[in-house]
């Protein structure tokens, strides 16, 4: 029984950051409702949904945070977009129309603007 509890606890600790990062990467929606009354007593309800998008310019040497990236994707088929092969420990990611070459610790090595 003790092994089962320890296994369940370890699985919970390893999978919980994955769920949090998926929620952080999703676009944030905020709903605003406005209610107005006209002179004749009729009620007018307007609902507006605001999507928060940050268009950011990335610089070489910065730390990359995917919460600030629009349309974040990991690029595996880099040759399709005429990007060079990443070295060991590096990978390409997409942020909006830009391609970013990241180091293993999240530092931006190269920025390729308008790659997509």
What structural category arises from helix and sheet content? Answer: alpha+beta
Question: What ranges have pLDDT less than 50 throughout 5 or more consecutive residues?
Answer: none
How much of the residues is beta strand, in percent? 25-35%
CATH architecture of the domain at 57-116: Roll
CATH topology of the domain at 57-116: Nuclear Transport Factor 2, Chain: A
The CATH homologous superfamily of the domain at 57-116 corresponds to inner membrane protein cigr
The number of strands is 6
- Global morphology: flat
Strand/helix succession: HEEEEEE
**Proportion in helices:** 10-25%
Mean pLDDT: 79
CATH top level of the domain at 57-116 is Alpha Beta
Rounded to the nearest angstrom, the radius of gyration is: 22 Å
Largest sheet descriptor: 4 strands, antiparallel
How are the strands of the largest sheet arranged? 3-4-5-6
Assembly state of the chains shown: single chain
Individual helix count: 1
What's the N-to-C terminus distance?
53 Å
Architecture overview:
With 116 residues, the protein is of the alpha+beta class. It has a domain at 57-116: Nuclear Transport Factor 2, Chain: A, CATH 3.10.450.160. It has one helix and six strands, in the order αββββββ. The strands form two sheets. It has a four-stranded antiparallel β-sheet with strand order 3-4-5-6, with no helix packed on it. Strands 1-2 form a two-stranded antiparallel sheet.
């Amino acid at each position: 029984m003790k092994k089962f509890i320890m296994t369940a606890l370890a699985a919970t600790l390893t999978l919980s950051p994955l769920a949090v990062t998926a929620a952080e990467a999703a676009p944030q929606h905020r709903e605003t409702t406005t209610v107005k009354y006209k002179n004749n007593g009729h009620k007018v309800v307007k609902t507006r949904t605001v999507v928060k998008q940050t268009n950011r310019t990335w610089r070489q040497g910065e730390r990359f945070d995917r919460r600030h990236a629009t349309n974040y994707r990991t690029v595996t088929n880099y040759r399709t977009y005429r990007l060079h092969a990443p070295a060991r420990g590096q990978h390409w990611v997409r942020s909006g129309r830009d391609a970013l070459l990241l180091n293993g610790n999240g530092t931006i090595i190269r920025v390729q603007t308008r790659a997509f």
